[in-house]
Every structure is written in structure tokens, then in C-alpha cells.
Amino acid sequence: MTNPFFKNFGPINLKDVYEVLEIKNYSNKKKKFFDITDLNSASSKDISFFHSNKYKSQASITKAGACITTKNLQHNLPDKCEKIIVENVLLSTSKITEILYPESVNDDFDNSVKEISKTKFKNKVKFGKNVLIGTNVKIGKNCSIGHNTIIEKNVSIGDNCSIGSNTILRNTILKNHIKVLDGCVIGKKGFGFFPKNGNNYRFPQIGIVIIDDYSEIGCGSTIDRGSISNTIIGKNTYLDNQIHIAHNVKIGNNCIIAGQVGFAGSSILGDNVMIGGQAGISGHLKIGNNIKIGGGSGVIKDIPDNTRVMGYPAKDLKEFIKENK
Q: Whole-angstrom Cα distance, residue 85 to residue 258?
């Protein structure tokens, strides 16, 4: 289960899946599935989805019991996997996700919060004025929380963490020795929707945010929770001010990211990555280990290990310098 905080309303019958997706010809009507997840994590009791050739290697070895995909991609899936053929994979996936996790669609404010002085944390945490705490919150030893900060329900904070003022946390796990500076919003739903018949259909966001030990999140940064998988920040990774990290992004250990960098959804960064200010990272990319990306660059394709790039589109640094003498 990707998010331990959202209630799973499964299992769901395969017959019901086909009916929701308005598919008339189907088999295995009595088969049940308990969750929906990505190709790598899926078991024989789960439904997954496969929408791009970029993921054909994962598709070929997935253990998913069923997979939402297209007619042109279905041949990449194992024989044992039930192929659910649709025209729009992501829209269909969002419909099934909403059935299993109906509470994940909206991000209304948490009405369970209480003044911290009225909670069990009043004598355990150093806190400022107007600090609100929701239900199912855990806070470790030697932590501090700044003024006007809201720790909504379903948040876990480890030991020796510092949360700044005017910050909102939800659906988030902070491990130990983490600093979240002023004005951050972490764990809100990502920017996922599909235009349909003049309306926008929201993609449920069932993931969480996980931030590993000794990391720092700069002022005014926003980190979206995952949609199907989780958004993850590695150990000893430092984010400057006003950085946006979209859903499902995974950033490795010992990374340094300067101000106003933006990440589109589902990109993966390795360890020891350095990114200059105002760079943009497109979605579904793989950025290797020991990478340096110059400020203002636009990264639109994968970058192999031990590479320096700059420009738009980002290219090898030596090539960039040669072209701009």
C-alpha cells in the first residue's frame, strides 16, 4: 500500500473494473484485486497501468494480476497479466484509483486540528504561537515548530527536526535531523487532471512524501505527494528557497538544488546531483549520479552518470560553451 494514511476500500472485482471503464467484452469476471500500484510494486493481487514505451522493461517483468494499457502496448506484458485495453490509460487508472481511494481526490482543510497546547505534545515540543496539530500525528524528541504552522493529520516527524513558521505538512513522513524552513507546503495533492467533455477530471493522489535524514527544505518550497508511488527526498539533500517538486519525483542522497528549480512529475534523480537556480526538469526523466546542471537549463531528456550539462535544451557543458563563445 503506497499511502498508509488513506483508507483502501478494496477489494474490487474485475467485473466492476470493466463496467466502470465501460468495456463490454471481458474475462475472469470473479477475480478480485486489492490495490492499484506501479508496475514495479504490483503483486498478483494488484492492478497496475502501462501507458508508455518508456516503461516497457518494467512492464515485461511486472507481477501485476491485471494492467490497464493500450492495444499497441499490451504485447509487452506477461501472459499471466490480465490486459485491460483502453484508449486513455491514465484517465482509466484515475477512475479505478478513485474507487479504491475515494478520500484521496480532494484536499480540504483538516478540521481535526487542535491548538498544540491542548494536545499531548504541549510539554514535548518547543513551539511558537498558533500552532495546530491534527489527529494521527507523531513527533519525536527535540523538535521545534514555528508560529502559525499546521501539522495536519497523518504526519510523522522524527527526532531533532525543526519546522519553520507558516508551514503546512500533510501526508508526510519526516525522518530524523530534518529542517523545513518557513512557508513550505509539503504533502498536498499534485497537479494531475485530464480534460474531458469540457471538465477536468482529477487524478487521485494516493502517495505520500518521505524526506530522509539530515535534509533541509528551503523557504517557500512545495513538495507534492505521490499519485501512485511516493515522492521521496534522499539523505543529506538540501533544497534552496522556492523550489517545486511534483508528484512521484524521487531525489537521491547528497543532492544540492538551488532556488526556483522546478521538477515535473515522476522524474528520478540519482545521488550527488547539483542543480543551478531556475533550472527546469521535465517529467518522467532519469537523471544519473554525480550530475551537474547549470542554472537556467531546461532538461528534457535523460542524463547519464558523471555528466555536466547546461542550456535549453540542456546539453553537454563543453558543447554548450563551444556554441556560445
A: 43
